[in-house]
Design brief:
Distance between the termini: 16 Å
Shape: elongated
CATH architecture of the domain at 21-103: Roll
Radius of gyration: 23 Å
CATH topology of the domain at 21-103: Ubiquitin-like (UB roll)
CATH class of the domain at 21-103: Alpha Beta
CATH superfamily of the domain at 21-103: Antirestriction protein ArdA, domain 1
Order of helices and strands: EHEHEHHHEHHEE
Structural class: alpha+beta
Strand content: 15-25%
Length: about 220
């Protein structure tokens, strides 16, 4: 994430939407002239708010036509790692709108899945992940490797330690839980443990065409990679 330099020309933040994601939109022409002129925009938002924002930072379509993102943040942990100065504003608005659909519990699971790694490499993946949370199994209140081992031995019904008699007292739940977590590629988070069940993802969004209702720019007048 690029850190914003101090500049007297930097406009005050104008918060719109719910701030699921916030981006600092900067006038590229002014930036190249050595002047930082920009504004925070909270997503999801509307075309009207974006138009007003661009007007305030001097994007007039004549002298100044392009903008880019010099800073970005999200209330959902891990999301901002996949945003860059070249990110598509329509796509980010789509993602912010999808994140709003999630409950607090779903957000925790979503964050944990991002933390697992391997399932997200782009903003498009973040969007599709919202619709694929059922591909992951969550074990509530399983907070560490001991809990995980205990769950699979005592509560899942897959094993019967009673058959071992007194030897069961020497079973190492923590070590077994450690091996299970490695095998499943799972992760612990604030409410428990989550892992991928192996089910295939569905990818309704192809990373190219943002559904019209989420688009806030008719002309993509910003700097792209």
């Amino acid at each position: 994430m690029r850190t914003l330099p101090h500049a007297s020309s930097c406009l005050e933040s104008t918060v719109v939407g719910s701030s699921t994601i916030s981006v600092f939109i900067t006038n590229l022409g002014k930036y190249n002239e050595g002047e930082l002129v920009g504004e925070w925009l909270a997503l999801p938002t509307t075309s009207e708010h974006v138009t007003q924002c661009l007007e305030r930072i001097g994007i007039d379509g004549i002298q100044y036509e392009e903008f880019f993102l010099t800073d970005y943040e999200s209330l959902v942990n891990g999301v901002s790692d996949y945003i860059s100065e070249y990110s598509n504003l329509n796509e980010l608005n789509y993602l912010a709108s999808k994140l709003e659909e999630l409950s607090n519990n779903d957000i925790e699971i979503y964050e944990a899945i991002i933390d697992i790694g391997g399932h997200v490499q782009s903003v498009a993946d973040l969007i599709n992940l919202v619709d694929n949370l059922d591909c992951f199994q969550c074990l509530w209140n399983v907070n560490d490797e001991y809990d995980l081992g205990y769950y699979w031995i005592e509560e899942s019904g897959g094993y019967n330690l009673k058959e071992l008699g007194n030897l069961a007292n020497y079973f190492d739940y923590e070590k077994y839980g450690h091996d299970i977590a490695l095998e499943q590629g799972g992760t612990f988070y604030s409410s428990g443990y989550v892992y991928h069940t192996g089910e295939s993802f569905t990818e309704d969004y192809d990373g190219k065409y943002v559904p019209e209702k989420y688009c806030v720019l008719s002309n993509l007048n910003y700097l792209e990679n």
